[in-house]
Protein: Chromate transporter
Amino acid sequence: MSHTPIATDAEPARLPAADEAPSVMSATAGVPVDDAAPHSILDDDSPRSPRSPGEIFLVFTRLAMQGFGGVLPIAQRELVERERWLTREQFLELLAVAQVLPGPNVVNLSLMFGDRAFGLRGGLAALGGMLLAPWCVVLVLTVLYAHYAQHPIVAGALRGMGAVAAGLIFSTGLKLLPALRKNVLGAPAAYALAALMFGCIALLRVPLLWMLAGLGGAACVAAWRRLAP
Structure:
């Protein structure tokens, strides 16, 4: 009995050649994974967002409790290096605005950061973290200081903390200097403005308000012209 071959439209499966690498397709873009740009989706240098106002409160409480003699260096370390909620450039921008506004610059920075993350709830969480626990500690230390203020050890400790605070602020400034390379005014102009501000305030004793109004105003106008369409 003869068997008649059955015609079929299906082509036989072809095994890939030895020099052909299988192309894995991306589930979202429909392109080979090798040709995709994973760094644009998940960049190691990109900041992450806080998960909740509660997390903001806890981080700012930890930040404030470490800030003996100055919170700014601790804020830069916690927000930029540890939590990675901000890049150095973003931290520098927030700090610049916080310096101009009235009030403590770190408190202003915490309010702006919390508001950017979760609106009013985030701002109140950051402010509460900055003030609540330190306020309780200050009450206790005030009572102790009233009794032991004249003790030589206490006086020496306060002078030592002042020196440490100055070193922390100086080191923070050095860490933030590389961020000026991406400034809208350009690196040479940004470095020149920073050096001029430092020289006028630290060496020539020019009042800070005058420098903010004069040099700060000129820098704002120049940046606005650069960004204007």
Q: What stands out?
A: DSSP finds eight helices and no strands in the chain. The first helix runs from residue 38 to 41. Confidence is low (pLDDT under 50) at residues 6-10, 18-43.
